Amino acid sequence: MISVANNTGSLPCCVRIKFPAARVSRSMRDTACKVLQVKEKLTAETGREPDVETIAKALDIA
What we know:
By secondary structure, the protein is mainly α. The chain has three helices and no strands. The chain has a domain at about 25-60. It has helices at about 10-20, 25-45, 50-60.
């Protein structure tokens, strides 16, 4: 068992080596934000959660 108090930083370093952070582009983050906004809007309008195709058509990305 690793003691965090005695080995400060060793566990996070190990995790970083095995699982490097994936970098997400700004445009992808912006698209994800738009998807969530459109999903909420369509859910409010129709009373049900929209499917992926409906969201894509609303954003004109299909």
